[in-house]
């Protein structure tokens, strides 16, 4: 299976890009979706998190209160490390399982922390959805209703734009419209389709 990693900083347009790949008939495995699946109500991971951090992080409907959990780990390095040690192996195993089940000519692995978490090691090539930092901030503020300081704090916890540009195989500029992004994705899809069919026929 040819795996293509898709990443980008907050507000870059990863979701719109992955939707465009899906419209081309490509299977998508989204690390954020997997991260939610491994802590769904009744899961062993959620029980361990509740035992460690207390029942206050579980909502009345039995689901994880992500905002409450974020508050507990935000400034606590040990708590964050404990959570990562629990969840990262589970998420990685589930990602690999979903990638192996993909049926399209190639599969796209969407992960905001593709490089930071070493998930690019699973990929034959990587795609960076790239926008200037000022645009990242304004788009995220508009979408999430947060302050520029909050957006900058999230950006500071990720690789810099320059680091991602240096690591990526392909870069898509998403400073234009959604229609522009779709055209870029469709063009790259044709290249990746060719790459995948060449590899699988070898």
UniProtKB/TrEMBL annotation:
<dbReference type="GO" id="GO:0015937">
    <property type="term" value="P:coenzyme A biosynthetic process"/>
</dbReference>
<comment type="function">
    <text>Catalyzes the phosphorylation of the 3'-hydroxyl group of dephosphocoenzyme A to form coenzyme A.</text>
</comment>
<dbReference type="InterPro" id="IPR027417">
    <property type="entry name" value="P-loop_NTPase"/>
</dbReference>
<comment type="pathway">
    <text>Cofactor biosynthesis; coenzyme A biosynthesis; CoA from (R)-pantothenate: step 5/5.</text>
</comment>
<keyword id="KW-0547">Nucleotide-binding</keyword>
<feature type="binding site">
    <location>
        <begin position="11"/>
        <end position="16"/>
    </location>
    <ligand>
        <name>ATP</name>
    </ligand>
</feature>
<dbReference type="GO" id="GO:0005524">
    <property type="term" value="F:ATP binding"/>
</dbReference>
<keyword id="KW-0418">Kinase</keyword>
<keyword id="KW-0808">Transferase</keyword>
<keyword id="KW-0963">Cytoplasm</keyword>
<dbReference type="InterPro" id="IPR001977">
    <property type="entry name" value="Depp_CoAkinase"/>
</dbReference>
<dbReference type="Pfam" id="PF01121">
    <property type="entry name" value="CoaE"/>
</dbReference>
<keyword id="KW-0173">Coenzyme A biosynthesis</keyword>
<comment type="similarity">
    <text>Belongs to the CoaE family.</text>
</comment>
<dbReference type="GO" id="GO:0005737">
    <property type="term" value="C:cytoplasm"/>
</dbReference>
<keyword id="KW-0067">ATP-binding</keyword>
<dbReference type="GO" id="GO:0004140">
    <property type="term" value="F:dephospho-CoA kinase activity"/>
</dbReference>
<protein>
    <recommendedName>
        <fullName>Dephospho-CoA kinase</fullName>
        <ecNumber>2.7.1.24</ecNumber>
    </recommendedName>
</protein>
């Amino acid at each position: 299976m040819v795996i293509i990693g898709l990443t980008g900083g907050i507000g870059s347009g990863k979701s719109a890009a992955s939707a465009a790949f899906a419209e081309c008939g490509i299977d998508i495995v989204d690390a954020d979706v997997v991260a939610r699946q491994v802590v769904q109500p009744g899961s062993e991971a959620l029980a361990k998190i509740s035992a460690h951090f207390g029942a206050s992080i579980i909502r009345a409907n039995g689901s994880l209160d992500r905002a409450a959990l974020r508050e507990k780990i935000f400034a606590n390095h040990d708590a964050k490390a404990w959570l990562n040690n629990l969840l990262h192996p589970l998420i990685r195993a589930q990602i690999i399982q979903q990638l192996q089940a993909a049926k399209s000519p190639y599969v796209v692995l969407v992960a905001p922390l593709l490089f930071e978490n070493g998930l690019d090691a699973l990929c034959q090539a990587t795609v960076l959805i790239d926008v200037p930092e000022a645009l990242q901030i304004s788009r995220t503020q508009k979408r999430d209703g947060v302050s520029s300081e909050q957006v900058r704090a999230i950006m500071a916890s990720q690789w810099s734009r320059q680091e991602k540009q240096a690591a990526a195989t392909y870069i898509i500029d998403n400073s234009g419209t959604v229609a522009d992004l779709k055209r870029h994705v469709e063009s790259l899809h044709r290249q990746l389709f060719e790459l995948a069919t060449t590899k699988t026929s070898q």
